[in-house]
Amino acid sequence: MKGEFRCDCPITSALDIVGDKWTLVIIKQMLLEGRQTFKDFLESDEAIATNILSARLKMLEEMKMLTKGKLPNNKKTNIYRLTEKGLSLTPVIVDLALWSDGNLREFNPIIRKDKELDIMKNDREGFIQMVKENYRNSSPS
């Protein structure tokens, strides 16, 4: 993946990494849903195909946005953890959630309204810090 950027534009370069259909979904699942293993991702509501999931996890690892290790009690199962670089996408994910709530609800009325969304709206910065700290303090399954 390294060096496979379309141009020198910072926005386009970022989209080369996180602009596909799945990358931010995977990061969101790790950050907000606690998913850590390949099986965890496959069992999600988003239904990502195994070949796409494998490719995205490998790319995120190459870009140092996550690390791959082994579960402490099961050396056969890989565990994925966000790095600080991956965690730095938290504001992007929060802003996408807020944008979606404010602009897409008329087209997708089943977008859930929950306590987390209310916290994001009322204290965006506090929510971002809370999510990052909760993630940093969570332990591998």
Strand content: 5-15%
Gyration radius, in Å: 16 Å
Number of alpha- plus pi-helical segments: 8
- Gap between N and C termini, in Å? 29 Å
The residue-averaged pLDDT reads: 92
What's the helix-strand series? HHHHEEHHHH
Q: State the low-pLDDT regions, or none.
A: none
Shape: globular
The largest sheet has its strands arranged as 1-2
**Percent range for helical residues?**
55-70%
Estimated structural class: mainly alpha
Which tags fit this structure?
mainly alpha, globular, two-stranded antiparallel sheet, 141 residues
List strands and helices in order, with pairings.
Layout: H1 10-18, H2 23-33, H3 38-42, H4 50-62, E1 66-71, E2 74-82, H5 84-87, H6 90-103, H7 115-122, H8 124-137
Antiparallel strand pairs: 1-2
How would you explain this protein's 3D organization?
Helices cover 55% and strands 11% of the residues. It has helices at 10-18, 23-33, 38-42, 50-62, 84-87, 90-103, 115-122, 124-137, and strands at residues 66-71, 74-82. Helix 7 (115-122) packs across helix 8 (124-137). The protein is globular, with a radius of gyration of 16 Å.
Compact overview of the structure:
The chain has 141 residues and is mainly alpha-helical.
